[in-house]
Amino acid sequence: LSICSRTVEPLEYYRRFLKENCRPDGRELGEFRTTTVNIGKCLCSITTADGSALVKLGNTTVICGVKAELAAPAVDSANKGYIVPNVELPSLCAERFRSGPPGEEAQAASQFIADVIENSQMIVKEDLCIANGKLAWVLYCDIICLDYDGNLLDASVFALLAALKNVQLPLVTINEETGLSEVNLKQKNPLIIRKHPVATSFAIFDDTLLIVDPTAEEEDLATGTVTIVTDEEGRLCSVHKPGGSPLTGAKLQDCITRAITRHKEVKKLIDKVIKSITPK
């Protein structure tokens, strides 16, 4: 197979590989790229964050920093804190992105992350309340893509979960005499994470063929994509399908089954890394 054919007719080039049940990068159709995660202060670039993580999915590299601040709860939800996710796709991560205000893809990714947090109940907002109607935590979750090579959503959900697992919040009380908040930095507690959502993305080729963990090139050539989010109980938290080829019920069920298997791999990886950085 010549390089020329990949440049001139990339789809035909891919189809030749797909017929042999493999991909140009050597992976099988159901094979994920090498996945690595680093958690915590080893990421010198964001030591100011209360929790941080860096995830690599093949060449796609995403960093997440979580910053916790104190604020008054909203009047209509006096017993809840806030979680504010934001996905950034700077021009440095790929030629397709431009400097300036967030583009459509970054906005869609931010909304997807917000939906995953809400639907999975990974963090219950009531757990972020310190004093009803008076004080609550706000978690600003900034997810920045450093290198884009497809499958942004899987990497972003993984980085968010790993960073949140790393957050330690100081003990905050309200002084009854003065009404002021008092922060005890010596006594810190981890966030209560109730569910561990993991995203698994697929590209659809020629309306029928499914491949997992697509690269940027594969996403461009695909006739559609679908992202399945599951938790540790195998519960379906979200199905994200932005247009493209329709999926039969059987194909969708196949995606969900594969997503549940992938969840176990990712959870095992996070647990292993957290164990390695936890003081004995």
TrEMBL record:
Keywords linked to the UniProt accession: Acetylation, Cytoplasm, Exosome, Nucleus, RNA-binding, rRNA processing
GO cellular component term of the entry, any: nuclear exosome (RNase complex)
Main location: cytoplasm
InterPro entries: ExoRNase_PH_dom1 (IPR001247), ExoRNase_PH_dom2 (IPR015847), ExoRNase_PH_dom2_sf (IPR036345), Exosome_comp_Rrp42_subfam (IPR050590), PNPase/RNase_PH_dom_sf (IPR027408), Ribosomal_Su5_D2-typ_SF (IPR020568), Rrp43 (IPR033196)
Alphabetized Pfam families for the sequence: RNase_PH (PF01138), RNase_PH_C (PF03725)
Keyword Cell cycle: no
GO molecular function annotations of the record: mRNA 3'-UTR AU-rich region binding
Residues in Exoribonuclease phosphorolytic domain copies: 31-170, 197-260
Location within or outside the cell: Cytoplasm; Nucleus, Nucleolus
GO biological process per UniProt: exonucleolytic trimming to generate mature 3'-end of 5.8S rRNA from tricistronic rRNA transcript (SSU-rRNA, 5.8S rRNA, LSU-rRNA); nuclear mRNA surveillance; nuclear polyadenylation-dependent rRNA catabolic process; rRNA catabolic process; TRAMP-dependent tRNA surveillance pathway; U1 snRNA 3'-end processing; U4 snRNA 3'-end processing; U5 snRNA 3'-end processing
rRNA processing is among the record's keywords: yes
UniProt record similarity statement: Belongs to the RNase PH family.
PANTHER family noted in UniProt: EXOSOME COMPLEX COMPONENT RRP43, EXOSOME COMPLEX EXONUCLEASE RIBOSOMAL RNA PROCESSING PROTEIN
Protein name listed in UniProt: Exosome complex component RRP43
Organism field: Brachypodius melanocephalos
